[in-house]
Structures are given as C-alpha cells and as structure tokens.
Amino acid sequence: MPPKRKARVEPAHEEKHGYSFGGPLGTGAISFGLPIACYLLAFLCNDVSGCPAPSVLHPSTLTLEKLKKDVGWQGFSTLLNTKTVIATIGYYTFSLLLYILLPAQEVEGVELSSGGRLKYRFNAFSSAIFTMVVLAAGTAVEGANFPVWTFISENYIPLLTTNILIAFVLATYVYITSFSVRMPNHDKRELAAGGHTGNVMHDWFIGRELNPRVRIPLFGEIDIKSWMELRPGMLGWAILDLAFIMQQYRTYGRVTDSIILITFAQALYIFDALYMEPAILTTIDMTTDGFGFMLAFGDLVWVPFTYSVQTRYLAFYPLELGLWGLLGVFAVQATGYYIFRASNNEKNRFRTNPKDPKIRHLKYMETAAGSKLLISGWWGTARHINYLGDWILGWSYVLPTGLAGYVVRNAMTHPADAVVPGSGAVFGGHPVGRYVVPGEAKGWGMLITYFYMLYFAILLIHRERKDEEKCRRKYGKDWDIYCEKVPWRIVPGIY
C-alpha cells in the first residue's frame, strides 16, 4: 500500500505575497542590527561619562580604548549574569500566574481564513494593577531603595541582554513548531500569508504561524502572540520608567517635573492599551502578521528598552521644565491626543452606528465590497489621520529632555564648573564630587533622546503603506477612486 500523502502546509484561501523588509538581506540586517542599536542607546548615553559619550564628539581622536572608558565597558562577561536571567524568568512566570489566576474576559477573535474563531483570555489591565500595587507596597516600606528598583538600575544591561536572548529563542521556537501546521485542521492553526516564502531568514523574522499557541503544565494553553503583545514588555516599559524615577531620587534627593511628565504621558498610553486589550484582535499584528522575531523582539525588547530612553536620560540629568515648559509640552500632548482620539471615535461611530447624530452628516462612498469609506470629516482630511495624532502625541515623550546632552565632570578637577547657573547641574549623590553639566555635549544628546520620533515616523509610514496595500487588495479600483477623493496619506498638504 502506498504511503498516505501529507496534507498541504498552506492556509485556506491563500494569497500570494512577496518578501517584506527587503527580503532575506533586509530582515537579516534588521534582526542583528536592532539589538546593536539597543546597546548603542544604552552605552552611548550613560552616567559614567555623559550623553553622548564625550569621545564620540571628537571622531578624529576617537580610539577604541577611549570609547571603552567613556561607556564603562568592563568586558563581555558583564553583558549577562545568572541572577538577571533568574529574575527575568521570575517576572515572566509571575505574569503568567496573574494571567491564569485573575478573573478574565473571554473574547472571540476575528474569523480565520480557514474558518472558525479562536478564543482569547484577557486580563492584562487587572494584572498590571496588581503588579503596580505590589511595587507600591514595596516602595512604601523601602522607599527608592526597594530591591526591584535598585536591581533594575544595577543590572540594566544584563536585563537588556536577557530579553534579547528570549526574543531569539522564542522566534526560533515558533518557527520550528510552525512546521507542524497542517491544512485543514481542527485546532484552528494556520500560516501567516506573508510568512512562508520558503526562505528561512525571512520567514523566521516575519513569523510563519499566524497564531502560535503553547500548552504549559499548570498554566494551560497560552496564545503566544496576544500574551506577548501587552504583558511582559508593555508593562515592563512602565516599570523601567518608575525605576528611573527612583534612581533619580537616590542620586539627587529629588524628582524633577520632566521625568514625572514623561512617565505620566507614557503610563497613560500604556494603561489605556492594557484596558482596551480586546482591541488588539482587529490589529494587523493579530489578523495578518505571523509571530516571528519581528514581533518577539518588538514586544520584549524594543518597546520597553528604547521607549524608556528618555526617563533613563533624565535619571542621570535632572532637568526642570518649569511652569511654561510644562504647559508647552501639555499643549503638544493635548493636540496629538485630540486628533488621535477624535478621529478614531469618528471612525468607530461610523462603523457601529452610521445614524449617530454626531457623524450622520459625514459624506462617504460605497465600494463593490460592500464597505463604506468616509470622504469628509477627519477621514476626508487624510486617509490615516489618526497616525498624525499618534505622532504628535509622541513628542510629549521627548520634549521634556530639552536640548539634550551632558557630560559628567569631577568637581576636584574642574572646580570652576561646580555650579553652572540654569544648567541643571547638581552635586547630589554622585560619588567623589561627580556632577553633570551640558558642556559641549549640549544638543548632541538629542540624537539619542529624540531617536524615538524618527523611528516612530518610519514605523507609522511603514504601517500606513501596509494598510494601503491591504486596502488596495480588498477594494481594487474603488480604492483608486477613494485616493482621488482623499489624496493625502497622513499629513494634509504634505504627505
């Protein structure tokens, strides 16, 4: 008897997709370039020599030995340690316990291309609140010297390394297990449309399987993608911000308005996302992208460690904004939030109840696919106007760092610089009379603290291009007509 043929390893209703991110070369460069970028942000802005490290401001005399001294390099052995690995695994395990033990909302996802819907368990918000209560209780007893805060400050680089390694391991695990997906199947597993080109590097980065799940003893079945999306990394971002506030207090004996403002703005964004956790089910991350290194690294490393760069900077350099500075940043934040929230509310009302008095006056066009596309109001201004609000909102994360850049000086060597009026220089708790002044580094630190805005602009444009491609496939010629009616992508009159 001839052997039975294996089922095809393809999802139903397959669409042909080419390479993304420049194919194997591009995805390979990103996979190994982004971890290096994280280390550069961490080492080049430090409390050893300054932000950026002074030697990089003089490239003609830059040597490897000078750079090592400026960044406090003590060898590869300091990049990782056992206690940090154990602590990180403990943090993930604690988050899993809260996921299993706390009450949760059971939600069905969107319909899969192969049919059926997956069920999800959501309690990220209550898990985060529980975690914050534990941290608040510890801080109330021990103050800024609560072991969690001091551990993060003392092991920042090993924590970064540990999470990078977890991202690599996780991406490899889901890539290998994705080859057990067979179509048709009864467990609702399917491959991501653009994640199985056959090239190992590309597919490992993009993610072959759309919704990988794992069954862990005592914990049950975990949806890897949805769990990683908002739990360890997103909450970790808030925890890092708080740790840097405590570090600033331990060093200088006070907490500045700038670091509080950034932490507040970012916490508002984080907890809003956690509270609206079911909303992730309709995002491209969940409906279209596979889970590979791109999402694993983004969730566990990029978000917490690069989005908290500004509070880490302010932990070293205690900048005071004053009343007018605070009002200026609040104005930017309010503008961005208004555009973001108003445009999204308009879209949601139109989708759920087109007869709502608040939006029934809006004009729209009907498509052959049966959908209605707004051509007036916010969405008649630009096809992705919410991205503009999101980007403006992000400026409130970086503006409180001011004209960033400082150097660490020794009062014994430079007594004349001991007090620099208006510079924010403080003697504080730095050992042996060390203090920070803007010096020649002033302005150059913006390459680090304002890096987020450049990256975020690129990210939003990339998302917008993916949205456009998806809509063009869905609506065909109707999308071309819509683009003529609403010509601007994100920024009216410019882009």
List its salient traits.
495 residues, mainly alpha, 2 domains, three-stranded antiparallel β-sheet, two-stranded antiparallel ribbon, 19 helices, 9 strands, 7% strand, globular, disordered N terminus, lipid metabolism, oxidoreductase
Shape: globular
Q: End-to-end span in angstroms?
A: 64 Å
Q: What's the story with the biggest beta sheet?
A: 3 strands, antiparallel
SSE arrangement, N to C: HEHHEEHHHHEEHHHHHHHEEHHEEHHH
Radius of gyration: 25 Å
Strand content: 5-15%
Secondary-structure-derived class: mainly alpha
* Count of separate DSSP helical elements: 19
Q: How many structurally independent domains?
A: 2
Given as residue ranges, the uncertain stretches (5+ residues, pLDDT < 50) are 1-14, 412-432
Level of helix content? 40-55%
Organism: Glonium stellatum
Transmembrane segments: 21-44, 84-102, 122-141, 156-176, 252-271, 321-340, 444-462
GO molecular function, one term: Delta14-sterol reductase activity
GO biological process, one term: ergosterol biosynthetic process
What does this structure look like?
This protein has a three-stranded antiparallel sheet with strand order 1-8-9, with no helix packed on it. Strands 2-3 form a two-stranded antiparallel sheet. Strands 4-5 form a two-stranded antiparallel ribbon. It has 495 residues and is mainly alpha-helical. Helices cover 54% and strands 7% of the residues. Strand 4 and strand 5 (220-223) form a beta hairpin. It contains 19 helices and nine strands. The chain folds into two domains: 1-320, no CATH class; 321-405 and 443-495, no CATH class.
